[in-house]
Amino acid sequence: MRHHRPTRTPRYIWQLSDWPHLAFDAAALAAPLAQVHRAQGMLAGRMAELGLPQRDQATLQVLTQEVITTSAIEGERLDLDAVRSSVARKLGLDIGALAPSDRHVDGVVDVVLDATRNFDQPLTPERLFGWHAALFPTGYSGRTRITVAAWRTDASGPMQVVSGPVGREKVHFEAPPAATLPAHTQAFFDWFETAPAGDAIIKAGLAHLWLVTLHPFDDGNGRLSRAVGDMALARAEGMSAAGPPQGTSAPLGGSDPRSGGAWGQHAHQRFYSFSAQIQRERKDYYDQLEATQKGPLDVTPWLHWFLGCLLRAVQGADATLAGVLDKAQFWQRWAGTPMNARQTLVLNRVLDGMEGKLTNAKWAAMGKCSADTALRDINDLLERGVLRRLEGGGRSVGYDLCAK
Ligand SMILES: Nc1ncnc2c1ncn2[C@@H]1O[C@H](COP(=O)(O)OP(=O)(O)OP(=O)(O)O)[C@@H](O)[C@H]1O
Where is this region: Disordered (predicted)? Predict the structure, then answer.
């Protein structure tokens, strides 16, 4: 999102005299809210049936997707391997060959992990500044030097969200003046930490909207608002998971030394990616924000959209879950088959999902080896029955994995 700083001021939600008293029609939201709670419960139930390693895999998959897509909204492409390695390293998971650490990627991973795993730590300006610094380790956004780890200044005019060619920009939104940010943000943090949660999912929707409306940073406002929304969602789930699972009497902080108890671990795991869903629906997301930020303090339509998007994220997690189950099944089947590190690595990449069919050239690219070596790897796996040759399929020979 580009920013531009001329001066006209139409009327925005934060200029209304009752700001920041956001209101909503709870009765109108009751049905979609119940639907989200039901979908979350079903997903949690399915995940509880998986073993711990598979749950870790699911978390890894989801967080990797989250990091990639939350950055992709900004149009910044992160390297999938680097992200997966960084997430795995921070979760303490062994995923075989780890790609080298990348400071930029690690920063984004830090933010997402801190927001969703340490959700019970208070949200403070310092914490948000830390996240901002992690997003912009060089102090630059593209080629523009920005204020990092501090609220923006209005040195070059008011903060506006604009699109379109230079000289003919369309202004979508103008944020509050920088001088008012200390007071505005203070009100936000007070509310976030102390207001009764009501329904915590609604609170997540309000938090996201409120922070992105303040637009308190030079850049990264979307990502940080989504992180704060995710943190509120994690709090919502943490609270609903505060008791032991039904039918067991396991105490909190039970037997698993890594997790502080399987249920404690469960509360910290994420099995769906809201940011990824927002990325898929981002045209709508921008339109909804724009209409809301130009509208009244009753933000029921925004919350309606937010709940719908969240529901689609939770439902979409089924696909991620299916992937994890396929992977587990595949490795169970071939547990006794010796493979070299490159074969394991490439097969995992294929299981994580790839575009199009597996070919010799793709194998060489993923395994970072020559075409001859790739062919040797593949022929070996064909002989053992791990791979099979696809019928027909044009110029290059394609292969498929055999799970049975
Ligand atoms: N038309 C619009 N009206 C109001 N707000 C918008 C509009 N389009 C985008 N936004 C908000 O502004 C954010 C972009 O602000 P900024 O560039 O500071 O954040 P970012 O994290 O760098 O961007 P991105 O969300 O693109 O990754 C978007 O994420 C969205 O929340």
Answer: 238-264
